[in-house]
Specification:
Blueprint lengths: L2 H11 L11 H14 L4 E8 L5 E7 L16 E5 L7 H16 L5 H5 L2 E5 L4 H9 L18 H7 L39 H13 L3 E9 L3 E4 L11 H19 L4 E4 H4 L7 H7 L5 E7 L14 H24 L1
Parallel strand pairs: 3-4, 3-5, 5-8, 6-7
Antiparallel strand pairs: 1-2, 2-4, 6-8
Helix pairs in contact: 3-11, 8-11
């Protein structure tokens, strides 16, 4: 899409988003602003922090009733958090988060029950610096773009591995940080967890915001790719969470709903058993530190044929699957609250 085509699309619809291709962060922000402008009684755009390079971390808050607009500490409605883009190269996750937001907001009457069941928070891109870097320099870049003292300490490794900037954002949260062997002490490696927990402004901003609202947040969902796995805490240990069976029951129903859409199969299990032990993850932190009962990490399409380079033609099919899954989760959570 050239500049003229983009401007025509903005003039016609008010935003450049298409879900037919992977968009830059500026397009996503423009779409979020469009939602806030078009639905002022239901949508707020919150800036919860900034990246190392100064990009804003934008969160969509969607509330279907005026009474939901008040502070979550005062409202009775549960809050659901969904984020994507924690790793720069996982483009599909950000598109899916925005698709879910779009369906609930722009097609509210069609999905009224789901929309009304909670106050929804969407963070489409948790790592904007990394996301933009994958568009401009290195398509497979994973980490943030922060610079630490240790990042420039080994010139030989820097020559071997390339740029040594950045931290794996999904190993930077303050819950059993740095305990596992998967956390590399080498800043040149993708698995570098940082010099300390919450060293990254992105992780700090997410942590601060969720802790401020943790009493009302009942579900935390972080999207990743790839492998089609539905991960349940814990990541840092092979032990399972005390309420694992209930979280698994919810996840299996959601995975079953996914399979009914296009036949995609998602494995359900603990993070450490389906993947490998990893400490300092967002989903572990959300459950262990923020005490959010329903905490999941969902690895989206595919199973490896394309991997991180998932074609844009699979954006909508992937998003439709996860939307249906979130619909199931929201309904189950609402029904449990009633009993």
């Amino acid at each position: 899409m050239n500049k003229e085509q983009r401007n025509l699309l903005i003039a016609k619809r008010g935003h450049p988003m298409t879900w037919m291709r992977y968009h830059r962060y500026a397009d996503m922000v423009r779409y979020m602003e469009f939602l806030a402008f078009s639905y002022p009684n239901r949508v707020q755009i919150l800036t919860i922090g900034h990246t190392t390079n100064g990009l804003p971390l934008r969160v969509i808050k969607f509330f279907s009733k005026a009474s939901d607009k008040i502070d979550e500490k005062e409202t009775e409605k549960p809050v659901i958090w969904i984020d994507g883009g924690m790793h720069g190269r996982e483009w599909i996750t950000s598109s899916v988060v925005l698709y879910i937001a779009r369906q609930l907001i722009e097609n509210y009457n069609k999905h009224k029950e789901m929309a009304d069941s909670a106050v929804w928070y969407f963070l489409p891109v948790a790592n904007p610096d990394g996301y933009e870097y994958t568009h401009s320099r290195d398509r497979l870049w994973k980490k943030t773009r922060s610079v630490h003292e240790s990042s420039n300490s080994n010139l030989i490794k820097k020559l071997l591995f390339g740029s040594c900037e950045g931290v794996d954002l999904n190993q930077n949260f303050d819950y059993h940080w740095g305990e596992n062997l998967s956390a590399s002490v080498d800043p040149c490696q993708d698995g570098y967890p940082g010099p300390g927990p919450l060293s990254e402004p992105e992780a700090q901003a997410i942590s601060d915001f969720i802790m401020l609202n943790k009493n009302r947040i009942k579900m935390f969902v972080t999207l990743h790719s790839y492998s089609q796995k539905w991960l349940i805490p814990w990541s840092y240990t092979l032990k399972k969470a005390a309420d694992y069976s209930e979280l698994e029951r919810f996840a299996k129903k959601a995975a079953k709903a996914i399979a009914l859409v296009f036949g995609s199969h998602y494995d359900v299990g603990s993070s450490s058993s389906l993947m490998y032990p990893t400490s300092g993850t967002a989903e572990d932190w959300a459950k262990g530190a923020a005490e959010i009962k329903y905490s999941y990490s969902i690895m989206l399409r595919d199973r490896g044929s394309f991997g991180f380079l998932l074609p844009a033609a699979q954006i909508v099919p992937t998003a439709k699957e996860i939307f249906v899954a979130m619909k199931v989760l929201a309904k189950m959570m609402t029904e449990k609250k009633r009993h």
